[in-house]
Design a protein that fits this description.
Blueprint: H1 22-26, E1 32-33, H2 40-46, E2 55-61, H3 67-77, E3 80-86, H4 89-98, E4 107-108, H5 112-120, E5 155-167, E6 191-193, H6 197-207, H7 217-228, E7 234-237, H8 244-247, E8 253-257, H9 258-266, E9 272-275, E10 282-288, H10 297-307, H11 310-320, H12 327-330, H13 335-338, H14 347-351, E11 354-355, H15 361-376
Parallel strand pairs: 2-3, 2-4, 6-7, 6-8, 10-11
Antiparallel strand pairs: 1-3, 5-8, 5-9, 5-10
């Protein structure tokens, strides 16, 4: 997301995380207020939780949290949820970096490589895991990672991949198996890329045989030069809802997050095929973090723990099409979700894929400079 997907939804997010964020601020989207209020007398009568004057300000990727989950949390706790969205890690980072004491979020969902950066910069609060009774439900493969040892600052939410999307009504999916296939001149004006510097450059780096996490300025420059030759094929950049350009017929092939492909299929575009490119897919994980100036810290912990319940994590994965790091939830999932290779890739795919990692501020500046040149043509 940066989905880690757009997706990272991630959309991950999904997926862009950075350090210099001027233009990313322009991409900020204003969220929806999802507060639900009920009279406390009525709540007492029907046994539901009494309402409170507490509002949890949640900052998340677009379409990355089922309404059923938000409603259930509000009904159970009486805590209102104000849901605001971003479309890139850079935009999220910029907003949190610039926030003052009077304008802040209580909970955000950045991709893993941004967690490491934000923790180093003192932008996050340490979590109180004594308030997270459901932490035990997480797959240990996704906890205590090198980017956040002991999960001091983050709790895994969802993980996913960025791969190839092909609309079979327009392009024969059998002919597109590699990131390099997007450069074919016959696809002029038909390709969609995520609006995510790290994902787009990661794709180009992989086609050159480099790591998608390269911090080598020469390799990043080579990726930029290759991407300039792709631009005649590029119709649009999108990290808000990456399925929409395919659904609307604006683009025929390109990048997307796996969950967006699942949602596109569910929404009627059954011809959209998701593939893991031969050079390797880009993997990411999105995580709950509590910003340093959060006011509703207790409410934030309650929300995280609510999402860690197996039955709730199951709902999220089934509805938005991304993989859950919650092992207990997977045991509850229907087989068509648990065994869907688009959501849960095979061991062979994982062995050929690469999780996004923090590349350091200096390298990020290089990425950002070339990204700006790529998109402006200057």
């Amino acid at each position: 997301m940066t989905h880690l997907s757009s997706s990272h939804l991630p959309a991950r997010t999904a997926a862009s995380v950075g350090r210099l964020m001027p233009k990313a601020l322009l991409a900020m989207t204003v969220g929806l207020a999802l507060a639900s209020c009920s009279n406390s007398d009525n709540a007492a009568a029907d046994g539901s939780a009494a309402t409170s004057d507490v509002t949890l300000n949640l900052y998340n990727w677009s379409e990355y949290m089922p309404q059923e989950i938000l409603d259930g949390f509000e009904e159970e706790t009486g805590i209102n949820v104000n849901y605001t969205t971003f479309d890139s890690n850079e935009a999220m980072y910029a907003k949190l970096k610039l926030l003052d004491e009077s304008s802040q979020y209580d909970l955000a969902i950045p991709s893993t490589y941004y967690v490491e950066k934000m923790a180093k910069e003192g932008l996050l609060q340490e979590l109180d895991k004594s308030k997270l009774s459901n932490f035990k439900n997480l797959d240990t493969s996704f906890t205590n990672t090198k980017v956040d040892p002991e999960n001091k600052y983050s709790i895994p939410y969802m993980w996913g991949s960025t791969g190839l999307a092909i609309n079979g009504d327009t392009v024969d999916p059998a002919t597109v198996n590699s990131w390099n296939d997007l450069w074919d001149p016959k696809y002029k004006g038909q390709v969609m890329l995520t609006n995510d510097v790290r994902e787009v450059f990661g794709m180009a780096l992989l086609t050159l045989g480099y790591s998608g996490n390269s911090s080598d300025p020469d390799e990043i420059k080579a990726a930029y030069e290759k991407l300039t030759t792709l631009m005649p094929n590029v119709k649009t950049f999108n990290s808000d809802a990456t399925r929409m350009p395919y659904i609307e017929g604006e683009t025929a092939l390109g990048m997307t997050w796996n969950g967006e492909a699942v949602m596109a299929n569910d929404e009627g575009l059954t011809s959209l095929v998701y593939k893991y490119p031969s050079e390797g897919a880009i993997l990411w994980m999105d995580n709950f973090v509590i910003p340093k100036n959060a006011k509703q810290v207790d409410a934030a912990h309650k929300f995280i723990d609510y999402l860690l319940r197996p039955e709730n994590a199951k709902i999220v994965s089934a509805e938005i099409g991304y993989a859950s790091p919650n092992m207990a939830a997977r045991e509850l999932m229907d087989e068509d979700v648990r065994n869907n290779p688009t959501i849960y890739p095979s061991k062979d795919v994982l062995a050929n894929a690469e999780f996004q990692e923090d590349v350091g501020d200096e390298a990020l500046q290089v990425y950002q400079q070339y990204w700006d040149k790529l998109k402006t043509g200057r």
